[in-house]
Amino acid sequence: MSLNNTINDEVPLDHPRYESLKHRHEIIEGMKKLIVAEAGLIAHGRGECFDYILGESTSENAKEAIKAAIALLYHAKHPVISVNGNTVALCPKTLVELSKIINAPLEINLFYRKEGRIEAIKKVLEDAGAEKILGIDDTNMVEIGELTSNRRNVDPNGIKIADVVFVPLEDGDRTEALKKIGKKVVAVDLNPISRTSLWADITIVDNIVRTLPEMIKIAKKFKNTEEEKLKKILDKFDNKKNIQASLNTIIEYIKKQKKDAFKILKN
Ligand code: ATP
Ligand code: MG
Known about the structure:
The chain is of the alpha/beta class. The chain has 11 helices and 10 strands.
């Protein structure tokens, strides 16, 4: 994809929206390689919009949610990371790195199962160093109740037996279904009021491209932390308050932009 200091020979490194354009480009390239579904482009756009009004940075409360998420994932007996096309197109390396550190397998779970997509996603993850990927053997999947979409099919050695499922960029229906069958859910979603955000046990309101490196950092830090301490972090965490804090971040950001835009508009 990108050349050394440009995106597609078109966007220079010093472009004010370089980072955002780079990720947009990764999503487009991912679609060309079947990794991302067409609807994934639109989902990314919705994410961009929320990131814009969150100030495109990881808030302090998102960092708190990340700590609680790592505590829960370490506390779990069978943690699983459920991945879709957008996540793999944006951050294959950090997904694999996190999976290895916290010892949680990656399971491919797609809404749109176009022919060749699973293979394309599998290849990207393998190229990024993944050794064991679940959800790839169609003949060996089981159904979870409460759901009618393709995503009801899960791996018997993964989500089926998982107690904690980490779902970066999830659909609300499935988050709800996972909750109804008794799983604890950790979600990453830039929209603090999506159904996913509201249903999850721990909602990290942040961009997945920033969240995963922060999760890796915290996972390394917590690696040998005693169970008691992890439990304390979990007990202290309040998802409702955390979502409210994200909404406040948006409100404050908009207020500031309103002032700043007013100054520019005056001239
Ligand atoms: P829900 O089904 O949970 O109510 P939705 O239907 O509005 O949500 P979906 O299309 O199901 O949205 O899922 C896309 C979600 O992923 C959106 O909420 C969007 O904000 C979020 N999203 C997109 N890109 C990113 C990203 N890079 N990091 C984090 N979240 C993202
Ligand atoms: Mg949805």
